Fold:
Amino acid sequence: MIFAGVDVGSMSAEAVLLDDAALIASSIRVVKPDPVASAAEVLEDVMQQSGVRREQIACCVSTGYGRERIPFSQHDVSEISCHGKGACWANPKVRTILDVGGQDCKAIRVDGRGDLRDFVMNDKCAAGTGRFLEGIAKTFGVHVSQLGPMALKGTDPVQISSICTVFTQFDVMVHLGEGRTVEDVALGVAQALAARVSRLVAKVGLEQSVCVTGGVAKNAAVVRALQEVLGVEVCGLSVDPQIAGALGAALFARERWAAERAGCTRAAATPA
Amino acid sequence: MILGCDIGTGFTKGVVLQDGNVAYATRVETRARPARAMEAVLEDIAAVRGIGAGDFEEIVVTGWGQGKAGTDCRTEATISCLARAAVWAEPACRSVLCMGTQQSVALSLGPAGRVLQYIANDKCASGAGKFLEMILEALECPVERSAEIARCADKKLPISSQCAVFAESEVVSLIHEGESPANIVAAILEHLAKSLVSLCRKVNLRDPLLVAGGLANNPQIVALLEEGLRRRVCSFRPGPDFIAAVGAALSGRRGAA
Structure:
């Protein structure tokens, strides 16, 4: 049996195909303005990769922006539940997930089955999200993926005093104007982001192990700074941390399909 | 002759004060290099007025970059400069709203410009001049034409995000949806004025209220503030941008007297 999960975010869309045991394909794409088009494209990617046809997919779950409008999904589940589920599958020790996405940031706590226990989120302010890094990358004139490697070479991080993304862009220009290296500025930026995210963790409570998901998880300097500020090790996942949401959606697809087949329509283990 | 300089996050303003009057005022973009901007102000004054740095009895610097001016000068706190200049321009003045590039400040004043209370927003770009600048850039609309363009609006558009970064994305979507620049600019000015009104409400505002800073050049912002605060306001003369620089120069005169 094959199950699909599709996650449309503010900056990227991901799809995952899963069979009874393993992950068989995954894809990440830059989003289009229309979430339905983004979801269709990224699902097409994984079907082509694996040679799976649409009619072979037993169940598809959508999550993220516009998740209730995706015509080819049978169910939709919140991205908070999906990130928890996906991360816990990719590393069963995980109990706290920091999902740092393009436009929001969440601290999520799950139980041993990857089911949601508690969460807090910031979606009001770009500080502590991928948009913060995008803004800084723009100021540097580099791609956002270059910020992490750049920051890891920093030795003497600058102090970023602003919280606001717009004001931090200005701070960055001032530091560069004063002759600070891009590496030290990028390191200061990674620490500022980590400090912001850690405030969410304080609100939800930290239970080990901790992992990071979402696009920002790919910035190794941010992950290292989070370890420093939280004082715990951030554990790795067996999959790309950016697909955790789509993976969780595919896992929910599998659970729901099994529950429906068992005639249990109440699907008690699947929060909406 | 005193030189007052205000090194702001957007612009650096220089004011030459002679016998208690503003003899010359100039502004250059700071471009995140405060010492360079300070030099540019001095160069401009030398070129236009033939006055060298050594001709001033004193140079007083205020604003964000005051500690980074790189010139031999005295520094003065921004809040005191604002209060001093406000009562110099408008002796009866009891409140000030100064709207800068990255900071907006509301002050409540006692007699003779004594600061009773002040509150600043320098943590968040919503409600700051920089916010308007960003949005107008996305719309390719010149700052000085924004009020005029907004007056042609025929529809109220909602901007739901408080955050400047997220509001910018909303504006991009509105452009894609084919909304007119007039309606978008009007919505942004309203969004901005709302933040400024709530800042003002945090201090005990009393009349007359003087408005200053770059945003006070925008007649639509001033009109929306008057509407939101239900009171008339007056603008700082000569030129709302120069309030802190004038205040810095006045503190020098007092010091020298």
Notes: Chain B is about 40% helix and 20% strand. Strands of chain B lie at 2-7, 11-18, 21-29, 58-62, 74-75, 95-99, 104-109, 115-121, 209-212, 233-235.
